[in-house]
Amino acid sequence: MTPVASQAPVPQLAHIFLILMENKSPSQILGSADAPYINRLAARYALAADYSALFHPSLPNYIALTSGSDQGITDDRSPVGNAVDAVNIADRIEASGRTWRSYAENIPSAGYPYDAGAYAVRHVPFLYYNDILDDEARRTAHVVPFTQLAADLRSVRTTPDYAFVTPDLCNDMHDCPVATGDAWLSRVVPQILGSPAFRRTPSLLVVTWDEGDERLTKDNHVVTILAGSGVRRGYRSATPYDHYSLLHTIEVSWHLPPLTANDAGAATMGEFLRP
Predict the structure, then answer these.
(1) Kindly report the CA angle at 67 between 198 and 115, in degrees rounded to 5?
(2) Which of the four pLDDT bands, split at 50, 70 and 90, describes residue 6?
(3) In a domain, 2, yes or no
C-alpha cells in the first residue's frame, strides 16, 4: 500500500493489545443491531474507516500481521510440519527488552499446537514460527490460556507490553453470530481498558478482523477500532490502512526495525494516537 503523503508522528505507547475477530465485513458490524457494544466502542474511541485485510483465507493475515509477509503460507494449515523460519514481531519485542503474550481461548494447555474443539491453532500465529514452536519453554511461557489474561491485568508489572488475544471459534464470530462476538467483547474489552496498565500509562487496544466476508465484498475491508488511554476520542479517518500499517505502527512506536519491505512501506496510524 502506498503511504499517505504526510503521516502523523507515532508516540511511544506503553502497552499494545490486539484482539482479532473473524470473517466479517463492515456492513455486518457497523450500524448493526447485533453489535451494539462494538458500535459504542467505535463512537467513543477511534475508527479506521478504510482499513483492509490482506488475504483470504485467515492464516496468511495472521502471519502477515506478525511477520510482515504471508511467508508463502496461502492456506489454513497446521503449524506442525509447516512452521517457517521467519523473524517475527515477538522476536523484535523480546530483543528490545519488552514482554509479550498470546492469549488463546479454550487452548487445552499452554503452547498447544493442534486444533481442539473451539480452539483453532491457525488463529495463534506465534506457533507458526520455528523459533517459538520448537522452543518448548518459550512456547509455553508466551502462548497461554485466555484465562491467564485476567490475572495478568491485575497490575502494571504483570501486564505484558504486547498481547495478542484470540477468542475461540464461537466468540470470534467465525462459527457463531455477530451478537455472540459482540457480547464477548463487551465483557473482555472493559477488563483491558479498565486495567491499571491501561489507566495509568498511554496504551492501545486494537479490535480488528482477520479478513472480510468474501460472500459480501471483494475489497476485503474490515472494521478496525483503536481504543485506550493513548487514543484520540471520537475520531474517525478514511485514510487507507491495512494489517501492515498496524504492524508498522507498533514498530515505530517502540523503535523496532521493520520486518520486511511490506511493513516498512506501509502508512503508520499515528493520526489516531494522542501525542
Answers:
(1) 85
(2) low
(3) no
In a domain, 9, yes or no: no
Q: How many domains does the chain have?
A: 1
Which of 16, 20, 40 shows the shortest CA–CA distance to 192?
Answer: 16
Residue-range definition of the domain harbouring residue 215: 15-267
Helices and strands (H and E) in the chain: how many: 11, 10
d(CA 129, CA 79): 8
Q: What is the pLDDT of residues 24-56, one digit of tens each?
A: 999 999 999 999 999 999 999 999 999 999 999
**Gyration radius from the chain CA atoms:** 17
Domain holding 149: CATH number? Answer: 3.40.720.10
What does the pLDDT read at residue 52?
98
258 preceded by a cis bond (ω within 30 of 0) = no
Amino acid at 99: T
> For residue 181, is pLDDT > 90?
yes
CA-closest candidate to residue 83, choices 71, 91, 92, 96: 71
Average pLDDT, the chain: 97
CA atoms within 13 A on the CB side of 239: 20
> Of the candidates 156, 157, 154, 132, which has an alpha carbon nearest to the alpha carbon of residue 144?
132
